[in-house]
Amino acid sequence: MQTKNRRDFDAVAEQWDQEPRRLKLAQDVVAALRKVLPLTRAMEVLDYGCGSGLVTLGLHPFIGRITGADSSRGMLDVLDKKIQAQGLDNVSTMLLDLEKHGLEGSFDLIVSSMTLHHVQDVPSLIASLSMALKPGGWLALADLATEDGRFHDDPTGVLHHGFSGEFLSGEFARNALVDVSVVTAAAVDKKGADGAIRSYPVLLCCGHK
């Protein structure tokens, strides 16, 4: 993403998990991933834009190994502390910004949750993630459905107001992914400035090579 409109996730990393809404969203996304994907203990997995590792740690009991990758060192420090505290031997971290660097290695599954709306060139990101899949590997991306811009209280670093299922499935197909499906993984209820509570769906798009 462009530096001039980039949120400082390092500054909020230590407090990130204190928002119950984020915890519930991660749990719902993990539940949807488990329902849609054929997870096995043989899978090598990447969670791109992992943040503090809420989805990463939700998935780790059901796969072989998982790497939490993020462009925020502060977020990865938080995740590293959790890994050490829980004594996990199948979870690791990687400092990675695919808008600046390529992705080395190949994976059976790549997931990403609530990251796409912070990325300037989403088609290029989806292409990069698709290329890093092993033959038969799965890509699973979760993000907000198209909304009116009121979801984020602070618009810093928000480059897209959600995505349509048609856009996501189209990009998957463009990268030769098959059996593409889009489901509603979660809904986030938030009170707006006018006091009204609105429900914001989160879509999960999955497909495989």
Automatic annotation (TrEMBL):
GO biological process, one term: methylation
InterPro entries documented for this protein: Methyltransf_11
The keyword Transferase is annotated on this UniProt entry: yes
One GO MF term attached to the UniProt entry: methyltransferase activity
Record Pfam families: Methyltransf_11
Domain Methyltransferase type: 46-140
Source organism superkingdom: Bacteria
Keywords, sorted A to Z: Methyltransferase, Transferase
PANTHER family xrefs: PUTATIVE (AFU_ORTHOLOGUE AFUA_2G14390)-RELATED, TRANS-ACONITATE 2-METHYLTRANSFERASE-RELATED
The protein's name in its UniProt record: Class I SAM-dependent methyltransferase
